[in-house]
Design goal:
CATH class of the largest domain: Alpha Beta
Largest sheet: 7 strands, mixed
Number of helices: 24
Strand content: 15-25%
Number of domains: 3
CATH superfamily of the largest domain: DD-peptidase/beta-lactamase superfamily
Radius of gyration: 42 Å
CATH architecture of the largest domain: 3-Layer(aba) Sandwich
Structural class: alpha+beta
Distance between the termini: 127 Å
CATH topology of the largest domain: Beta-lactamase
Length: 742
């Protein structure tokens, strides 16, 4: 019953609330529900951040120094210190002393703090990591004063080093490491730090009837007396004329020369390049640091006035040759007088680099080139060691040294031209020396054998009247085997091969060339190289947008068209032929060792490939190369007639856009003498004439020098080293002339 009345009451409330016509009767507003009211409490006071202690301020200062934040350091100084020292001067004092100490990094650790009212004192342990004297530790005292309720630092230079008081200062006595020496393979110095002499003359003081000066200077600089005398023949009589640079030791060998009238000798000490920089394209040279790189090198432990390697082995071996500088940190009084040595760091000696070069052969190769633009590369057959790498024109790196008086007179343009290394960093059409590759491709294709015959009439017309090519020998060679065709350098024979290879596989000849190491760098360290170019169908399509045609294979077969090779590549190629098929990586560094110490590096031969020839095919190639210098059809027979050293070679005459072609001769010796390893040579001479007329005699002279034989006079010389006319007009033996192809 109670449940019923409750429901009824609820329904009555709902009906009353929902009625539209009947107003609800007035009711009393019920009291708000009861809630708990918190008892009143006091508002808590904020806890103040404690001010940094004296020790924290001191530690923060040295942490900011460690981070190089001089602005934060300056902000921590007392008002008195700031008013006494502008911020720029403050930072400069720190940087100056860090530079003197050669400090790269530092750490500062507060070890103790004592407070007395508004003053405090912190003891700090400082550790500097320096470039020249190693780790440097000290204790400094930091005075603090409370200003405006905060601890601030009272600056004093003694916070950098405790003895920087009363005007005392730090000074680093340099102990520079001597730069390492570059030697040849026999321990003959090529580049070292030495006492040098700038040599010049005053023409008006030279005695007219005295030839001693020209003779002595010729002996000193390995030139003829006539060439030396010609230098001052028309020179102003009262002006200094630079002649060259020598070492004091070299000059001492001609003891009477300094006493001859007219000579001027100016000594200096610096990096010296023997032989007026013979082999400079290999050794490279040094220079002073440039402004934009100074900070980087100083941070690595160099002195600001130090020289670094710019090119060649000098640059490649910088870390080896530079050693590590040392020094003595010294305390000076206010007048600059030394008080005591704080710490000494001895320099670490540099290591020396022994190159693979034979310096005598290097100079002989440069002498053999004479005044021609060209290159000579000599490589040991069985190891890949480069014994000589000559490039002409060359330059004397001693002239880059401002301490050398003669540097004021050099021609910068000539130096720029002379810096091109034609031996490894330049590439040229190969001409007929490429026929070594074409001969090999013919054999490996199995389309030909060494005994295959071809009748050379002097005219090649296998493509009909639309393309008729003529041999360099007007009336032709007659019937020749393929081997004889190589020895005679018969162009029609090799056009015949080129056409056959094109029809069989247009990529075959290019692939064979690459297997012989052409078209890519040889891997020579430490010099930059040019890769050269061996064209093929894919290359022509990608670069010219044209399909490969038979004429491209004809050009390739005789080393023309787009073919580009370097003398270094060709020297390695013939070395591989001479050693029975192994392609070695050419190398220039024989060993690295500290003076008087055990080597830290010793060169090992590195075989990087093999010629794609069977033993029988390789023998056929070698025999044909030997016949180049022996048989009547051989293009270089007259150049090596009765020569005591067996020569296996190939002539080349490469057409260019200029009227005169490049002259090539490549080959190797087969003397098999104990203690005198056989060598491969590549000789290239720019736009000068026939390979047999120019390059072959140069090749012979270098071989004569290597085997210590009397030098043969060139056809264009009056005597060895003296040309008949300023522009030689060589004549002689059977010449090879190639017809340019379309």
């Amino acid at each position: 019953m109670r449940k019923f009345l409750l429901i009824l009451g609820v329904l009555s409330f709902v009906w009353a609330a929902c009625g539209q016509d009947t107003p609800a009767p007035p009711t009393e507003t019920p009291p708000p529900p009861l809630t708990a009211t918190p008892a009143p409490t006091d508002t808590p006071e904020p806890t103040p951040t404690p001010l940094p202690s004296a020790g924290e301020v001191a530690q923060g200062y040295f942490s900011a120094w460690q981070a190089g934040d001089y602005a934060a350091m300056y902000a921590a100084l007392s008002p008195t210190s700031q008013s006494a020292l502008p911020s720029a001067d403050f930072e400069q004092q720190y940087r100056h002393n860090l530079d003197i100490m050669t400090a790269n990094t530092l750490t500062g650790t507060v070890t103790s703090v004592t407070e007395a009212g508004d003053t405090a004192q912190a003891q700090v342990h400082l550790t500097y990591a320096t470039r020249f004297i190693g780790r440097l530790d000290t204790e400094v005292t930091v005075n603090l004063v409370r200003a405006g309720g905060l601890w601030t630092i009272t600056y004093a230079p003694a916070m950098i080093w405790p003895e920087l008081v009363n005007g005392q200062q730090l000074y680093m006595v340099p102990f520079p490491a001597d730069r390492g020496t570059l030697y040849d393979r026999n321990g003959v110095p090529m580049v070292t730090t030495a006492d040098a002499v700038a040599v010049g003359v005053v023409p008006g003081e030279i005695s007219a009837d005295n030839d001693d000066l020209a003779v002595g200077l010729g002996r000193l600089f390995k030139r003829s007396a006539n060439d030396i005398a010609a230098l001052w023949e028309f020179a102003p009589e009262d002006q200094y004329l630079p002649i060259g640079t020598t070492s004091a030791a070299e000059l001492a060998k001609i003891s009477w020369l300094p006493n001859v009238s007219g000579i001027r000798l100016t000594p200096y000490t610096s990096r010296y390049y023997f032989g007026s920089g013979a082999a400079v394209h290999v050794t490279g040279y040094t220079r002073y640091l440039r402004a934009e790189e100074l900070a980087d090198y100083v941070s690595r432990g160099y002195y600001a006035d130090q020289r670094i390697g710019e090119t060649g082995i000098e640059a490649w071996g910088e870390a080896i040759l530079s050693g590590h500088n040392g020094g003595q940190l010294t305390l000076l009084d206010a007048a600059g007088n030394p008080l005591r040595a704080i710490q000494i760091g001895n320099s670490t000696p540099a290591q020396d680099i022994y190159t693979t070069l034979d310096f005598d052969l290097q100079q002989a190769a440069e002498f053999a080139l004479g005044g021609y633009t060209g290159a000579v590369v000599a490589i040991r057959l069985d190891t890949g060691e480069v014994l000589a790498m000559a490039s002409s024109p060359t330059f004397d790196p001693n002239l880059f040294d401002p301490a050398n008086l003669n540097s004021q007179f050099y021609n910068g343009g000539n130096l720029s031209v002379g810096q091109i290394n034609h031996a490894a960093q330049d590439a040229f059409p190969a001409g007929s020396v490429f026929k070594l590759v074409t001969f090999s491709a013919a054999l490996t294709s199995e389309l030909f054998t060494p005994e295959s015959l071809y009748d050379c009439t002097g005219v090649w017309e296998e493509l009909g009247p639309s393309l008729v090519l003529k041999d360099w020998k007007e009336d032709g060679h007659g019937e020749l085997s393929l081997s004889q065709g190589l020895s005679a350098s018969c162009n029609p024979w090799f056009w015949h091969v080129g056409k056959a290879l094109y029809e069989w596989n247009p990529n075959w000849l290019s692939e064979t060339a690459r297997a012989f190491g052409l078209g890519a760098p040889t891997g020579l360290a430490p010099l930059a190289e040019i890769p050269g170019l061996i064209p093929d169908p894919a290359w022509k399509l990608a670069n010219n947008g044209e399909a490969w045609e038979v004429v491209d294979s004809l050009n390739l077969a005789i080393g023309q068209g787009s073919v580009q090779v370097s003398p270094l590549q060709m020297a390695r190629l013939v070395a591989a032929i001479g050693n029975n098929g192994t392609l070695y990586q050419p190398q220039l560094v024989l060993k690295v060792a500290p003076a008087g110490g055990e080597p830290t590096f010793v060169m090992q031969p590195a075989a990087v490939g093999a010629l794609p020839l069977s033993p029988e095919q390789l023998l056929a190639l070698q025999t044909a190369m030997h016949n180049v210098t022996q048989e009547p059809v051989g293009t270089a027979r007259n150049r090596f007639r009765n020569f005591r050293i067996p020569i296996y070679g190939k002539t080349g005459t490469a057409e260019t856009a200029l009227p005169e072609p490049h002259a090539w001769f490549v080959g190797y010796t087969f003397a098999q003498r104990e203690g005198v390893p056989d060598i491969a040579l590549a000789v290239w001479v720019s736009n000068i004439g026939q390979g047999s007329d120019i390059a072959a005699p140069i090749f012979r002279r270098v071989v004569e020098s290597y085997f210590d034989l009397p030098l043969t006079r060139y056809p264009w010389e009056e005597s060895v080293g003296v040309v008949k006319t300023p522009e030689p007009t060589p004549t002689g033996g059977p010449a090879e002339t190639e017809t340019p192809t379309p």
